[in-house]
Write a structure and sequence with these properties.
alpha/beta; Rossmann fold; globular
Length: 585
């Protein structure tokens, strides 16, 4: 049969596609396989955001299937295996509950790039450029309805809360449909059981290394706010972790196995198990650890890399819990709110920001001891001050609200490294630089294994002109496998750009993929200009001022919001002016 391509008008819009993905992920075919749902979301979102070139076996293995950064898809076939499972699951879905879906998603054999079709049209894969134009055209329809949606949300908020606030932290209230689910005892965060390490050998050296590593894990893991860590009881300490009885209160189990090589180097293999399903949520191997040369350095490196992969805001456990949140509306509402807030911090979607703010405001009001919620609420308010997200009539100044929330989080939990990091960020934005770095020092001391804190501190050193020290901290975080959000790449860009390394600056600018992040457009414009590509620089500037017109009116003021060093602002403003962005035009 000869198939005709779908016309642009028939291409499904982003709204239609995301609705289709939600239906698939919550269907009975996918509900027991959240990993397949995460695979599907990743590849579809990459196309929706114009990043289909990132859909590669290595990227899927690391970002979706949580393999280590040394993952080699030529050796480990996990991506091919999961892609085959996904194709079969999609076939079952469209033969069953999705038989009448208006939009279909296919993963052609030999490719990980999905193809979207509308029902009733026999079509080939829409060519990537045509498909993306169609999606971008559909996006305008979403934008047209967004303002009305926010107005409606505000009206509902008035009906729920009345005209007054629910606490001293907030301005005007937004609509929030309370999350379902029953709060569990404690703070609502997931529970991880860290099993005693096992080993292949019987040497005293290996036993000593196991004990030292396990002790270090106990000392560091408890410093992370959004995880509750448990360890085997004395009675169970001698039992094999593989024979450990399930505990309904435990969400994950971390199992470690050591192997002492003939050259006395220690290899360690870890597996993170989903306690409810028994599935492996993540596995990682630390090979040829130089235990004999420097046992303490080897131990610390393992602990930091483990903590980075598992506990960071964009790490394995948060990602796994997000998949659960999308599939099921059950679970502790406090942690689900943190998941929602984490996702909003990754994006610049006004609607997502509104949901996160409303959720945190409601839950901190109903759970006044929810210090983690106050920390994240401070981060949400900070973004309103920096990027203009979510401003509403009746709000007090966002950085004032952010400061109150951050300080209250510290009052509730004085040993919270994350709360001190947020306080550092807020004080920095308020130009209380000395006090900000004092808070940053406290955060670093409370949790030196938190590479998000290390990266944030290093980036802000660069923005005050301490470039060499800041770059060392950013590179230190990278050495421990730190997941790199957009702001991390911007700080690296800034360090390389100010140092005159235009090639590396351009590379880091290209890594900033978050739509709506204003400094991403700034970085790409400056990098293109430095390489003589004025046409590309002009395109990035046009996108920037379309996104945030304030950059057209006063680019210096926008730079000063994040960069306090006058000499750096002068340099960037001068270079932007040479590219056509001078303000007042």
């Amino acid at each position: 049969m000869t198939m005709t391509p779908v016309s642009l008008g028939e291409a499904p819009t982003p709204d239609e596609l995301r609705a289709a993905i939600d239906r698939i992920a919550t269907s009975e075919v996918f509900v027991r396989s959240p990993q397949l749902g995460a695979f599907l979301r990743f590849v579809c979102e990459a196309v929706l955001r114009g990043k289909a070139d990132r859909i590669k076996a290595y990227t899927i293995g690391v970002e979706v299937l949580r393999r280590d950064t040394n993952f080699d898809p030529q050796i480990d076939p996990i991506v091919r295996v999961e892609a085959t499972r996904l194709r079969r699951a999609l076939e079952r879905y469209y033969a069953g509950p999705g038989v009448n879906d208006p939009v279909t998603i296919d993963l052609p054999r030999g490719s990980y790039v999905p193809v979207f079709r509308t029902r009733g049209v026999e079509a080939e894969a829409v060519p990537r450029r045509m498909r993306w134009r169609g999606l971008r055209a559909g996006r305008s329809r979403i934008a047209a309805g967004l303002g009305a949606g926010i107005v409606a949300a505000a009206l509902v908020g008035l009906a729920i809360f009345g005209g007054g606030g629910i606490g001293p932290w907030f301005g005007s209230q937004a609509a929030f449909t309370p999350m379902t689910g029953t709060p569990r005892p404690g703070n609502g965060m997931p529970v991880l059981l860290v099993q005693k390490l096992e080993g292949h050998g019987r040497s005293d050296f290996e036993t000593a290394m196991q004990a030292a590593l396990f002790d270090a894990m106990q000392g560091q893991f408890s410093r992370f706010d959004t995880i509750n860590v448990r360890y085997p009881s004395a009675a169970a300490a001698g039992a094999s972790s593989r024979a450990a009885a399930p505990d309904r209160d435990i969400d994950y189990r971390l199992i470690g196995m050591t192997e002492l090589r003939a050259d006395r180097a220690l290899n360690v293999q870890f597996r993170l198990l989903d306690n409810a399903s028994g599935e492996v949520a993540w596995s990682g191997r630390f090979q040829r650890t130089a235990a004999a040369a420097d046992p303490n350095a080897a131990r610390d490196k393992i602990v930091i890399e483990l903590a980075t992969k598992l506990f960071q805001p964009f790490g394995v456990i948060r990602s796994h819990q997000r998949t659960r949140h999308l599939v099921s509306k059950a679970g502790d509402p406090r942690y689900r709110c943190i998941v929602e807030a984490s996702e909003s911090l990754r994006s610049f979607d006004p609607a997502q920001h509104l949901r996160a703010r409303s959720c945190l405001e409601q839950l901190t009001a109903s759970h006044p001891d929810f210090y983690i919620g106050f920390s994240y609420l401070a981060a949400i308010y900070f973004r309103e001050g920096q990027y203009g997200l979510g401003a509403r009539a009746g709000d007090s100044p966002p950085l004032d609200r952010a400061l109150r929330a951050a300080r209250h989080a510290i009052e509730l939990k004085p040993e919270s490294a994350r709360a001190y990091q947020i306080l550092f960020t807020v004080l920095f934005a308020r130009r209380d630089i000395a006090e900000a770095f004092a808070a940053g020092d406290k955060a670093m001391a409370l949790n030196p294994a938190d590479m998000t804190i290390v990266s944030d501190y290093g980036g802000r050193l660069i923005s005050v002109g301490d470039i060499e020290r800041g770059m060392r901290l950013l590179q230190h975080a990278a050495e421990h496998g730190s997941i790199r959000p957009s702001w991390y790449h911007f700080y690296l860009f800034l360090g390389y750009y100010l140092g005159g390394d235009n090639a590396k600056a351009a590379f880091e600018a290209d890594q900033i993929t978050t739509p709506g992040y204003s400094f991403g457009y700034v970085a790409r414009a400056l990098a293109a200009g430095a390489q003589g590509n004025r046409a590309q620089a002009s395109k990035e500037i046009a996108r920037l001022v379309e996104l945030q017109p304030a950059w057209r009116d006063d680019p210096r003021r926008q730079l000063e919001k994040s960069i306090p060093k006058a000499e750096i602002v002068d340099r960037l403003a001068r270079d932007l002016a040479a590219l056509g962005l001078s303000g007042g035009s």
